[in-house]
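User: Quick sanity check before I run a bigger batch. Here is a single chain. Can you write out its predicted 3D structure?
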Amino acid sequence: MLLDWKLALLPYEQAVDELVIKFKGIMREYHTANLISPIEDVTGRVKTVASIIEKSNRRNIPLDKAIDVLEDIAGIRIICRFVDDIEEVVNLIRKRNGADMEILEEEDYIKNTKTSGYRSYHITINYPMFIQGEYKKIKCELQIRTLAMNFWATIEHSLRYKFDKNVPSEIKNRLKVCAEAAYKLDEEMDKIKDELMESQQFMENREQIIDRIIHNIHNIYNNINIENKKDYNYQFINLYQEGNIDKLREFNTELETLLQEMGE
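Assistant: Done. Predicted structure follows.
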């Protein structure tokens, strides 16, 4: 009996969609609280049928058992800026253990780097879902890594497929050198993390104030009781070009006070 792959993989596609939404929701929680999220980006994928067949053959798994045996048919990739952020994300996932997901296994390929140079933190989970009215646990692999680790892994993955997994030794050696260089970059970024975070926080606060000013100026233009409306726009342009966040904040307070007095 031929396996209906489209039907068999549908729960995995739904699980990936839901998990991406969950982790992006965590990002929004941090942003709403005016905090820097340890998650930079989240993506998901379901293995292609060709990849499932290839991996099953390589591991001598009967094809009709592949869906139940393979742990990475559904995959979520969580990208962080700093190595320290990975630990924070791992702890966030552990806190959800037993609630909306069940941790089956953790593999730390950052401390225990693969011989190829690959670094990432893997967590295999069971994700509970109701599919056509039936309760089912979907296995999913969460890969947590930095931007630098992800860049290296993407290149290495592409080369493995180009050479049909028989990458020449010279290229393997060069990849290992690149992996060490990428991790060295991560280590240096961790050393200046505080300064980088302060810079990003400053930029985010500035953008929030500018968005609020634009919103308030829009409301001023719609208020028939406010005179000299264009003056506020000219003042904003001057302050924006000056770039002083304190002056922008004071200007926004003036706008909000004016709108409150006018009943907006």
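The mean pLDDT is 90.

User: Great, the batch can go ahead then.
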